[in-house]
């Protein structure tokens, strides 16, 4: 399927990379179809709207930055996403002026069912996580730095 993006132009996307978000994403409830566009380098991808070329979200694997990140997916959310076995979790990244100021949203992860190609941004209630958790924490290895 050919889709239009503002950042990357026209792209040929495989069907298994297209997800239905039945209720949209908070603030974008009318946007229900998205493609996952994996970037070549690093743990990042785009969540690109199929309806609106200039609407995309930068995603990352939250476990790559916070290995101890964990939460319990409420049964109602698991049922809505028809999750029986496989699940992918991503976090929305907000790029700031400097990498050190950039954040990811651990309070509302994007939960994906790759088998049914369903997705939802799930707001975790009673959670210690933030919507603006620093992407890089003090002492964390950064690209270009060495440990010597």
Automatic annotation (TrEMBL):
<keyword id="KW-0810">Translation regulation</keyword>
<keyword id="KW-0969">Cilium</keyword>
<dbReference type="GO" id="GO:0005737">
    <property type="term" value="C:cytoplasm"/>
</dbReference>
<keyword id="KW-0282">Flagellum</keyword>
<comment type="similarity">
    <text>Belongs to the FliW family.</text>
</comment>
<protein>
    <recommendedName>
        <fullName>Flagellar assembly factor FliW</fullName>
    </recommendedName>
</protein>
<comment type="function">
    <text>Acts as an anti-CsrA protein, binds CsrA and prevents it from repressing translation of its target genes, one of which is flagellin. Binds to flagellin and participates in the assembly of the flagellum.</text>
</comment>
<comment type="subunit">
    <text>Interacts with translational regulator CsrA and flagellin(s).</text>
</comment>
<keyword id="KW-0966">Cell projection</keyword>
<dbReference type="GO" id="GO:0044780">
    <property type="term" value="P:bacterial-type flagellum assembly"/>
</dbReference>
<keyword id="KW-0963">Cytoplasm</keyword>
<keyword id="KW-1005">Bacterial flagellum biogenesis</keyword>
<dbReference type="GO" id="GO:0006417">
    <property type="term" value="P:regulation of translation"/>
</dbReference>
<dbReference type="InterPro" id="IPR003775">
    <property type="entry name" value="Flagellar_assembly_factor_FliW"/>
</dbReference>
<dbReference type="InterPro" id="IPR024046">
    <property type="entry name" value="Flagellar_assmbl_FliW_dom_sf"/>
</dbReference>
<keyword id="KW-0143">Chaperone</keyword>
<dbReference type="Pfam" id="PF02623">
    <property type="entry name" value="FliW"/>
</dbReference>
